[in-house]
Design a protein that fits this description.
Largest sheet: 4 strands, mixed
Helix content: 40-55%
Distance between the termini: 42 Å
Order of helices and strands: HHHEEEHEHHEHHEE
Structural class: alpha+beta
Shape: globular
Oligomer: single chain
Strand order of the largest sheet: 4-6-7-5
Radius of gyration: 17 Å
Length: 205
């Protein structure tokens, strides 16, 4: 059977809109970077200090790029995150849970096509619905979503700084000692270029 240009175009579209939840890809790097922050918070504070040098006013330049990222709080949120990390006791690393990764991929695929943001997907549902579609959780669950950065370190730093989020909920999820397992998925986003979703649980099967 011959392959037409139309067939190739559809195949390419499927490739670029597919969220990757494999532990050896961007998603795995995200978990590794999250575990580095959990197990060595004082070391991670140093990475945030390096980022601070990129700020001009309330905006900072992406490393290796001429583009600026517009923030709400400027260095105030970054400095507050550094103080938090300096006080934070090391925590155990999170283990990879494939089912949680699939739940994360459901939302990443959804928003990768719709261009929307937030914790409830148009087709994939809310966090609890997605997680329970792939298994059974115990005690508690939570979800982090990041948009924009194209490296795991920048994505995790963004979530720890939690600029413009009064309760610093993303940071609290990363450093919650109750969570023992996690899964993640990353993919393209039509508005913010990149997005990553991470699901946390105390236990999951």
């Amino acid at each position: 059977m011959g392959i037409t240009l139309k067939t190739l175009a559809v195949y390419f579209l499927l490739l670029v809109t597919t969220a990757v939840a494999a532990p050896d890809g961007f998603a795995g790097q995200l978990l590794a970077e999250t575990n580095l922050a959990r197990t060595a918070p004082q070391r991670y504070a140093g990475y945030l200090r390096e980022l601070r040098r990129q700020f001009t006013g309330k905006n900072y330049r992406m490393p290796g790029s001429a583009s600026f990222v517009v923030t709400t709080e400027g260095v105030a949120a970054l400095d507050e995150a550094v103080r938090f990390l300096q006080r934070q006791a090391p925590l155990a690393a999170l283990s990879w849970a494939p089912g949680l990764a699939e739940a994360a991929a459901d939302l990443s695929r959804d928003e990768g096509q719709s261009g929307e943001t937030g914790h409830t997907g148009r087709r994939s549902g809310d966090m609890r619905q997605r997680i329970e579609r792939h298994g059974t959780w115990t005690s508690r669950i939570a979800e982090n979503i990041g948009y924009g950065p194209d490296t795991a370190r920048l994505m995790v730093m963004q979530l720890i700084i939690d600029d413009g989020v009064p309760g610093r909920g993303h940071r609290k999820n990363i450093f919650n000692p109750s969570f023992k397992v996690a899964g993640a998925a990353c993919g393209p986003h039509p508005v913010y270029q990149n997005m990553c979703v991470m699901e946390f649980a105390a236990g999951f099967r």
